[in-house]
User: Fold this.
Amino acid sequence: MKRIVWVIVTILILLPLFVSASTEKSPQESPVDTGAPATDNVAAVVHLVEAEGVINPVMAEYILGAISDGEKAGVEAVIIQMDTPGGLDLSMRDIIKGMLTANVPVVVYVAPGGSRAASAGVFISYAAHVAAMAPGTNMGSAHPVAMGGKEMDETMMKKVENDSAAYIKSIAKKRGRNAEWAEKAVRESVNVTADEAASLGVIDFIATDLASLLDQLDGMKVDLRMGEKTINTEGALIKTVEMGTRHSILKVISNPNVAYILMMIGMAGLYFELSNPGVIFPGVVGAISLILAFYSFQTLPVNYAGLLLIGLAAIFFIVEIQVVSFGLLTLAGIVSLIMGSLMLFDSQEPFMRVSLPVMLPTIVFIGAFCVLIGYYAVKIQRQGAVSGEVALVGELGTALADLTPGSGDGAGQVFVHGEYWKARVAPASGGTIKKDDKVKVVSVDGLTLTVKKG
Assistant:
């Protein structure tokens, strides 16, 4: 009970680090040379959000928080500098809702060179008041894929595809962008370069850097919820809205590789705690790791069959120590662990799956560890007793005086296992045992040994 209390208290102390509503770091000022003459007063303030990585609940909360802060601060615009391979549909829709109802101009800028706006990134770019790309970037491949560990049949996939196509066409119509290309991006997974996107009306313009972006934004008119607004970015000062500590931590643990490792650490920690009650530390680490892993799973396409197979592998490894199966349970555990790891995240996108360089060493390490533990468990079970009365049977010692059969219980003494014992001669010992003769313990009766010649 005391151990459980310690685990709960530790979790309650550390949990606020991950679930409390912490604020973002203060925006960092970064003046940008737009070519305008220097003035005593800064004409405008623009917030810059660096959205790099998968679109998930953490990224959505970060972007929406930045838009909300920009509205409260009365900034001229919020620039989302984006580089994403895509992400979750629900998180993408949350971001789009926030952008479509924002009272501050939201600009999506696919940059720097080499970046992309794929899948969910296409939808978010279309929803922006202004969309721009840097040279050497690309956009497209917005076809929906099966998520959450569920296989979609042809009919269901068609429904999802039609829903996505209608959704992006409605956004394109609202923002005055190319709806025909948007539908192709969803249905045919087409891609375009920055130059092609500009010529097709997918984006508003190409900007080589932030200074060029601000130059071209200056004077543009956009429709906000409260009405039309003319963007004024002449001599603008850019303030970078960085991820807070909380969001940074949650972004890291939302990575499939990190989630997988956290789950393995969690199972190992709880196993050690249950095997060695009272150690505390492994149990605390295991409990926290499992909580963080389960948080990650809600942001990832988890296949619950894979999760159950990994849990079954843990049960096999634990039972192997208690039941001698000559390695069969360990083998079954390794097979379950391999199959469960391969099935854990069901997605066609590589960034939503556990990478083999992470998975294989983890499986090899856990498998080798369990085989080693099982080997020593079997070895210990096959050893004779090393303490208690049973351990004395068969031990050799020395007679301290002559021992005669039938002379009475405890009539003589022997020196066995570093101790002095009362002794009697076994009936079938073969006669009198002389002093200093070697004796062998036949049985133990309290503090008296029955011995025979050794």
Observations:
- The first helix runs from residue 2 to 14.
- The longest strand covers residues 45-52.
- Residues 255-382 form one domain.
- Residues 73 and 268 are 48 Å apart (CA to CA).
